[in-house]
Specification:
By secondary structure, this protein is α/β, with parallel strands linked by helices. It is 33% helix and 26% strand. The longest helix is centred in the C-terminal third of the chain and has 17 residues. It starts with a helix and ends with a strand.
Amino acid sequence: MLDKIRAELAPTGILRAGINLSNFLLVTDKTPEGDPIGVSPDMARAVADRLDVRVKYITFASPGELADAAVEDVWDIGNIGAEPERAKTIAFSAAYAEIEATYLLPAGSLIQSVDEVDREGVRICVYGRSAYGLWLADNIKNAELVKTDGVDASFDIFVEQGLEVMAGLRPRLITDVEKLPGARILDGQFTAVQQAIGTKPERVASAAFLREFVEEAKASGLVADLLEKHRVAGRLTVAPPV
């Protein structure tokens, strides 16, 4: 069976792994040669090890760029947040790790819960092509989304335009809230970004292999070990089994 998977995913003996560099929890550093270091590249390497092939990292500055490349012959597996829009062109495993997404509020805000955010007159600043940004685009009904082209841009626009809410991943918001006296982060979450491994939908056998691999990686403790190794445990959590 692995011979068939190798033929689909790594016919040249090299597994090309698409890695999103913008998530600082999943890519924490780089080697002197420029290769990414972190949970995401280590998961890709573990897939390559299982297939007994070499891994080559194909890096992208943003998750949107990685997702766009799904229709091209650029990567064989892609490590990215799974969400319905991306699933149109990528066959995802279940999540191996989750990151809580919530809201940052400026000083003086009267909003007390996540459920109170989606109402008229509220402007939510969000990185539009992030997994949580795509989730908000599908689910926000009354508030206005102010979409930006990056996490740093979201913070700048949130402050400069005096917006009511900024959406983001909780670990990053914990850093941002320290820059704004009186600002606070809401308890709870509006979604959790599901970090998964994907491949092209037509690779049916390979997609099934990746789903099984991820479940084994969670059950065996591999994912938990990688979170500890890269010092992101507590900010990233192991996703529950399917």
